[in-house]
Amino acid sequence: MYTSKAVPTQTALFGQNVSLAMGSTINKLSTTDVDKLMQGLDIDVIALTELLVPHGHRVEMGMIDAPGIHYNLSGEGRISINGGPEMPLNPHLLIIVPPNTPFTIEVDGGRGPPKLISRDCWTRQDGILRVAVPNEKPEIIQICGFFNASFGQSVRLFGELREPVIEQFEPADKIDLKLREAMDELLQQEVGVGAMTASLLKQIVVSLVRRSLRSSQRWTERFSILADRQVTRAFADMVARPGAAHSVQSLAHSAGLSRSAFMARFSDIFGQSPMVVLRDLRMRQAAINLTTTTMSIDVIAHNAGYESRSSFVRAFRKAYNRDPSDYRRTAKEGKAQKDI
Fold this sequence. Notes:
Layout: E1 11-12, H1 31-39, E2 42-54, E3 57-61, E4 68-74, E5 77-81, E6 87-89, E7 93-97, E8 103-107, E9 115-116, E10 122-125, E11 128-131, E12 138-151, E13 155-156, E14 165-168, H2 175-188, H3 193-214, H4 224-227, H5 229-240, H6 248-255, H7 259-270, H8 274-292, H9 297-303, H10 309-320, H11 324-339
Parallel strand pairs: 1-13, 2-11, 3-9
Antiparallel strand pairs: 2-12, 3-8, 4-7, 4-12, 5-6, 5-8, 7-14, 10-11, 12-13
Helix pairs in contact: 1-5, 2-3, 5-6, 6-7, 8-11
């Protein structure tokens, strides 16, 4: 099972009860704002699983502390999520299942109720869990990707998802090819496998958001952040330009709100003040620069919006429990170990 870096405790943006103080009408999001958010979204892959369910069998899984993308490559059957009503499974159906949520997939056939596929039939190979019955032809073939999607270290996109997101795709959307490619990456275990699998899952998340924006029923508006267009505009600017000279006043102006209204609505959604979230986004950018460029610490500090190296080092140490130079050195040593 491929395991990504540990993800700190995070503020979740899906399914919160947020008082928007903006009336009952929800304005449509700007595609520019959504694009900024998608560019700044980090994906950490937790695990990939392949389910092969024959006629007359069922599989029971779940209770992973991360949302899961379930894509039905082929076959027909049923799925029940968290003991809820059964839903039909058809080819190219995609479901995002909430974290820590059990689910059951079953296919009719044979005598009596579908037989449970025991854990003796669960095998692992190069980071992929495969659930299959030996010598049985599968009816359902499904790929499941468990992941975390976040902005920086403290803001999760799907963390508090309470209801599944369901979308019917078509072969032309090529979702199956992206998932197959992600599985091939894990099997090959080449340099950059984590980055490649994360990139492929991110493409799927972006495809979902695009589909929602074209739909008359926008599930993206169930995200508390995406439901408040004005706060989204300001947050998207923070994500796109974390090193800019943002202030509460400038962000409130970007949102078209008074300072007090912006602070109240932002804190309602994120559970943190704008400046705390901005600091986290700046640390994320700094960490990326430290591990992917040869820029000096002073330049990285300036790009992250800090006027002095000392204040930047203090903030970075608080976020990552180590100095920027130590963080860079550890990252290089880890890469060198993988290249051996």
